[in-house]
Amino acid sequence: MGESAPCHRSKNKAFINPYGAHDRSIRAAQKMCSQCPVIRECALEALRSGSTLDDSIVTLGREVIAAGHVLPKGDASNDDVWPVARKLAKIARVRPPAYVVSRPRFRPPSQCRECGRPMVPWTRGEVPEGMAMHYAQGWGQCCRSAYRMHREVREVPVTRKPVDRKRHHPETARARAATAARRATNCLRTSELSTATGGEDRSGATGAGG
Ligand code: SF4
Ligand SMILES: [Zn+2]
Fold first, then answer.
1. Distance, CA of 14 to CA of 27 (rounded, Å)
2. Which of 49, 134, 131, 31 is nearest to 88 (CA)?
3. How far apart are CA 208 and CA 210, in angstroms?
4. Protein residue closest via CA to atom 3 of ligand 1
5. Ligand nearest to the backbone CA of 134
6. What distance in Å separates the CA atoms of residue 33 and residue 64, rounded to the nearest whole number?
7. Tell me: the pLDDT tens digits for 81-108?
């Protein structure tokens, strides 16, 4: 955008800090944007400029003025992000990107919700005496049936692991079946071979020993 962008020559601080700027300054900046020759490129860039460097998280830019809009604070979990993203996408003539909303991870409580037994997180190791391992949604292994009952009564949706598409892909299934068949054939051959030669080998070994 560089030289052709009027904001690059402007002293109006609202462009880079709209939340600390006067309404008047914001309106002046927005007016400048409305006459900007690169407004489309600016909107396009703003739609993704909050993303991480490796693009693993794509999100809207934050807390600046871009393409005539004040970009909201926070990430896609902020409800204000979507209306602005839609307006920018309209200016850029693209579809709004699919932002990923980051939800806080569920942290199991330190005690089983059912029996109050102290809990440790899921582990392959040993669970200390008197404690239970966390099972699901705050219930310990100690109270699995109570958890299932709770799920049925409340109709709580089960959070399942995403299906491993590669593992369940027909190609993979065929490849697995072929490997299993090959192994079975090899086993059969080996056992046939050992039946055929096993006696001689053993007798040979016995002969050498004696
Ligand atoms: S549209 Fe973008 S590049 Fe143009 S003046 Fe506004 S903020 Fe600057
Ligand atoms: Zn319990």
1. 9
2. 49
3. 6
4. 5
5. 2
6. 12
7. 889 999 999 999 998 888 876 666 678 8
